[in-house]
Amino acid sequence: MSLEAETASADKLRNAMVDGLRPWGAALSGQVDAAMRAVPRHMFVPDVPLERAYGPDPVVTHRDGDGVPVSSASAPGTVAGMLEKLDVRPGHRVLEIGAGTGYNAALLAHLVGPAGSVTTIEYDEAVASAARAALSGMGAAVTVVHGDGMLGAPGGPTFDRIVVTAGAWDIPKAWWEQLAEDGRLVVPLRILGLTRTVVFERAGAVLRSRSVMEDGFMPMRGVGAVREQNVPVGSGPALVVRLDDDRPVDASALQDALEHPAAVYWTGVAVPWGWTEHLDFWLATLEGFCRLLVSRAAVEDGRLMAPKGPWGSMGVVEGGTLAYLTTRPTPDSDAEMPSYEIGACGYGPRAAELAARLAERVRDWDRDGGQRVRLWIEAYLADAGHPELSGVLLAVDKRDSRVLVRLAEPAPAAA
């Protein structure tokens, strides 16, 4: 294919990519729409076909020595959504944590214009070098720094906007110090193993959320990294217990638990498609909360009940007992609008107790608004005193910050 033909094909695919975001609810502002149509995404993922470069999925670009992905180009819908929430204006000073391919930084440079500035920090030297080369190749005025984004930008400048493109366990002090008053921080924040992309605005000593969205990102590396435990249980393994902390897990005792018959509690809470907005935050208030990745083989051979999600479910582990959420179709479920009742199943000597706890928290979530619940998240510096805790669903202390999750007023029911 000639260069001219390739350029025409890329332009056509890029416009189709942006047009394709609309049916999924990503109605873009004029500025973000223009940026995504102008910046050639394929230049930042040069080793994949054009159709994939402009497809709807993320593209892994770098892996570690074990083959584990460490950097990728996020899905276009995710990129567009974060840019909309960041609300970048011409002349803004923007800090990006996690350069990745450099594509997002190029979009930011388009948005801030010649009067603004973009600095992006990348932990991995090879990734930073590739991003710098791609940005330079298309003439984007972006400063690429190889370093640890948790430490902020060198020299301590102030930014109107900070965007984080990896799962962050904490909001480090450097980000607080470098975010301007009334500035905006968009960050995929990990809270007890749950990731939400939170749009924060700064008001003095507090960051207050404007929106909270569920999404998944690769975890940050460097001084702010938190080791994720993945504990295999049973042959296969039948399941994996995933934790964001160093809590001890007795895999041998849990393997014995799988030999017990399941204790099952059905909640009477039914939801379309089995979708339970923010339910996991209610479960996170339970002792032993964790993520349980249940294998398809263990379900198919009858060892375990099917979990709520295709990958597994949130649940709890205590000693030699575990429990997680499951579902079953409701009598009125149909192909066009499937409906599922939420249940809890437990295995081990205290299976009935743990399953009953999970089931009750599902009912609490439903009473608090169910699918209409909205969360309000606040962050404070860890040494800034004790914020008001009334009405707080979760209070999580981290290294540099304290994060509070509150229940906002439920959205009105659909007519």
Task: Describe, in plain words, how this protein is organized in 3D.
With 415 residues, the chain is an alpha+beta fold. The chain has 2 domains: 3-214, Rossmann fold (3-Layer(aba) Sandwich); 229-370. It is built from 11 helices and 19 strands. It has a 10-stranded mixed β-sheet. A 7-stranded antiparallel β-sheet has the order 10-11-13-14-15-16-12. A hairpin with a 2-residue loop joins strand 8 (194-203) and strand 9. Helix 2 (30-38) packs across helix 5 (103-112). It is globular and about 65 Å long.
Task: Using brief descriptors, characterize the structure shown.
415 residues, alpha+beta, Rossmann fold, 2 domains, 10-stranded mixed beta sheet, 7-stranded antiparallel beta sheet, 11 helices, 32% strand, globular
